[in-house]
Amino acid sequence: MSIVMGSQSDLDTLKEASSVFKEFSVPHEIRVISAHRTPDAARDFALSAEDRGLKVIIAGAGKAAHLAGVLASLSLLPIIGVPMHTSDLGGLDSLLSTVQMPGGIPIATVAIGKAGAKNAGLLAVAVLALEDKALRGRLAAYREKMTQEVEEADRKLQESGSPSA
Ligand code: RP5
């Protein structure tokens, strides 16, 4: 599993994906590779990814975010794109650059920013879980815990007395 980002400045966001992998004990690497600033490294990374045993690549980038698209153009591995939040356009620039791929070269694009990075991690876990029963069990338990937390929050709210209509 690999998490790649276009700049060191993306790390705070992509840490969310790394946290998910740590929670599920999924081994992973974290790389800074830019489609624009280090195009040769991006190409080498994509062409060697499958031979290195990677199964899914998470690629996060911002602004004219071409990293996920470039990797997807050079690798058959599933690529999950995380659009970074940006100061100028709020991440809409990153989102459109990542999601609007031409037919034939797909990227599974998630939400802008930290929620997207977290979901990228969970989506990658779901892909791995297709062939790993133990991991699938941990994913099911994760979902169940979330469900219980929402039910518990609702129960407490009802006990404290909901406002009358
Ligand atoms: C993109 O430009 C990076 O992915 C980052 O989100 C954005 C800004 O990069 P820095 O100028 O902070 O290196 O390529």
Could you please describe the fold and organization of this structure?
There is one protein chain. With 165 residues, this protein is α/β, with parallel strands linked by helices. 50% of the residues lie in helices and 12% in strands. The chain has helices at residues 11-23, 39-49, 67-74, 92-99, 114-129, 133-159; strands at residues 2-5, 29-32, 57-61, 79-83, 108-109. It has a five-stranded parallel sheet with strand order 2-1-3-4-5, with helices on both faces. The longest helix has 27 residues, at 133-159. The mean pLDDT is 97. Bound molecules: 5-O-phosphono-beta-D-ribofuranose. Residues 6-7, 9-10, 34, 61-63, 84 line the site of 5-O-phosphono-beta-D-ribofuranose.
